[in-house]
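Run log // design_07
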């Protein structure tokens, strides 16, 4: 089944509502940068590359709205702001960029996509707002298509690392749902199966938002890829029993020295993998590497609502009055990473030199 996490349909952006999966499969519609930012913040769309693609469409939608290029879809545009006054257009666009940049802090793909859209905007800034809007929309389409191509290239490199029959553990959801399609870590699994390898997946449940139980398990079941769900605290036991051959996860940001930020709990899995001599791979498009950040210490870690830890949806189980922490990501030091799987190849034992060499900077 082809999962279209985001799609452009009838002059609007549609995104699968990942908060309600797998109980329900529904698309929500987006017309403005502000609503896309809210969709990112509230986790309708999540996963680093998917957030980047959504942000790119958010910019394009704002340009369309401000240039009045889609008149029927501009409910929030007051009459006096209609038309193509350049100053107003520029002001509105800056607001759009600002609200999108503030939606989630850790995934660098968000900022990468915004920077790319800004460059395109600057390159056509002297044109009329409707033309600028069309150019930005074309760029958002290109970012989406490119993401799928990159995932497939990464998948091929990663699949070569897995032996036939491998039992592979993953954490969170780095699948089609976390990207424009195919996935990063789950893309490696899809590519391995496509290459004829009989692999099976062990999905960590991934407390507190349950991306593993809800999204990874759903995706693998849809694909008929054998998958077994475990709670996060079972990983060490399975490794000790010799039931895990490799770990493949995704990432939200990789520092220049190879330190990897990913969903909370990933660091724990990496430590366990090292203890049991199990290779720990990170599927990582080059857009997720942030050369401006020297080490993982400087990667901003999002703190989310305590409600996510207190319980799930309407069910509350934590004692009233207890203090709660909810850091949504952690950092795995580069020394625990066996290899970064990128679209250009695998960087074994990643360090600053290996990363710069592959990125040719
Ligand atoms: C290909 S996605 C890689 C990461 O973004 C993924 O592993 C992850 O941590 C997602 O976190 P989320 O909070 O669900 O956005």
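design_07 sequence
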């Amino acid at each position: 089944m082809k999962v279209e996490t985001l799609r452009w349909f009838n002059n609007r952006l549609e995104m699968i509502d990942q908060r309600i999966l797998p109980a329900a499969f529904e698309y929500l519609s987006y017309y403005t940068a502000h609503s896309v930012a809210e969709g990112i913040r509230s986790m309708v769309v999540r996963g680093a590359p998917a957030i980047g693609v959504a942000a790119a469409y958010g910019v394009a939608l704002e340009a369309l709205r401000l240039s009045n290029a889609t008149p029927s879809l501009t409910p929030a545009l007051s009459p006096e702001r209609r038309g193509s006054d350049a100053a107003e257009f520029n002001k509105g666009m800056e607001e759009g960029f600002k609200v999108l940049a503030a939606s989630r802090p850790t995934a660098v793909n968000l900022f990468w996509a915004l920077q790319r859209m800004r460059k395109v905007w600057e390159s056509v800034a002297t044109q009329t707002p409707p033309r600028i809007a069309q150019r930005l929309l074309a760029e958002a389409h290109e970012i989406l298509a490119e993401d799928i191509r990159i995932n497939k290239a990464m998948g091929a490199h990663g699949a070569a690392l897995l032996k036939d029959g491998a039992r592979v553990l993953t954490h969170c959801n780095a699948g089609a749902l976390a990207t424009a399609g195919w996935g990063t870590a789950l893309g490696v699994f899809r590519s391995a199966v496509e290459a004829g390898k009989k692999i099976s997946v062990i999905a960590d449940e991934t407390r507190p938002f349950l991306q593993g139980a809800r999204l990874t398990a759903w995706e693998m079941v849809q694909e008929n890829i054998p998958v077994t769900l475990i709670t996060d605290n079972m990983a060490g036991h399975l490794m000790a029993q010799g039931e895990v051959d490799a770990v493949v996860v995704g990432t939200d940001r990789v520092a220049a020295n190879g330190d990897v930020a990913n969903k909370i709990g990933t660091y724990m899995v990496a430590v366990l993998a090292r203890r049991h001599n199990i290779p720990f791979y990170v599927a990582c498009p080059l857009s997720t590497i942030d050369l401006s950040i020297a080490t993982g210490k400087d990667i901003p870690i999002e703190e989310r609502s305590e409600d996510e830890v207190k319980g799930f949806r309407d069910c509350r189980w934590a004692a009233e009055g207890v203090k709660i922490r909810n850091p949504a990501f952690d950092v795995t030091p580069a020394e625990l990473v066996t290899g970064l799987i990128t679209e250009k190849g695998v960087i074994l034992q990643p360090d600053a030199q290996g990363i710069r060499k592959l990125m040719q900077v």
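The pocket of MRU is lined by residues 46-49, 107, 172, 174, 178-179, 184, 211, 250-252, 262-263, 328 (CB under 6 Å).
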